[in-house]
């Protein structure tokens, strides 16, 4: 499962992945609004 995969990654890496995901999501939302 994805959850166990996240738990195997060090906390710093998972936080970076979450931040990157939020960044990409906000980019997509900005493109939709234009």
Q: How is the biggest beta sheet arranged?
A: none
Question: Beta fraction of the residues?
Answer: under 5%
**Spans of 5+ residues with little confidence (pLDDT < 50)?**
none
* Topology, number of strands: 0
Order of helices and strands: HH
Separation of the first and last Cα atoms: 36 Å
Task: Note down, in words, how this protein is organized.
88% of the residues lie in helices and 0% in strands. It contains two helices and no strands. The N and C termini lie far apart (36 Å).
Please describe the structure with a list of short key phrases separated by commas or semicolons.
34 residues; 2 helices; 88% helix; mainly alpha
Topology, pairings included?
Elements: H1 2-8, H2 11-33
In a few lines, what is going on in this structure?
It is built from 2 helices and no strands. With 34 residues, it is mainly α.
């Amino acid at each position: 499962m994805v959850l166990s995969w996240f738990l195997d990654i060090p906390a710093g890496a998972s936080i970076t992945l979450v931040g990157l995901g939020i960044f990409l999501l906000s980019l997509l939302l900005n493109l939709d609004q234009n």
